[in-house]
Amino acid sequence: MLAASATLAAAALIPITAHAASPDASSWTLDRLMSTLGQKKSGHATFVETKYLSIATEPVTSSGELVFTAPDHLEKRTDSPKAEDLVIDGDKLTIARNGHRYTLALTQYPELSAFIDSIRATLAGNRFALEQVYKVVVTGAGDDWTLTLTPLDARMLKSISTITLTGTRDLLHTVEIQQADGDHSLMRLQNDTAN
Length: 195
What we know:
By secondary structure, this protein is an alpha+beta fold. Helices cover 23% and strands 46% of the residues.
């Protein structure tokens, strides 16, 4: 459950198209990145996600779309290979699959809640809230940046080692989640710049 939900949350860092001025490499800081990503309050992208699992002989690939609406609505709609919807609204996670719908209160899952809230903090450009949950490192410049998040909480580290996001200015291109057990996933996003 945590891996699927964590993927939803990380993947929800959807492209934001704000058409910011072109900063040089020396001015591309965490504050600049947070400001750029937090400018638009909604976004949409299609995705292809590949999961590398120790229990599978071949990588598992899925595809679908992601939707974000500020301040706290995230959706991951998987179309292939099986339909599944993961929706986060406020403090509720709703999972719809195989004709069934399940709703969880995030307050009952503090590690998952902290993970999701940190993603929301990124979308909102809230550096302070992000740094409450992760060690945050930004490298590169506006045209080619990498944001690496390492959980500070020991319980969360038992599930997720790092989350690495790459992008160009206000567009997110990839989200990679490295799990503590060695499994990992890579999500590639096709940005909908019409938003």
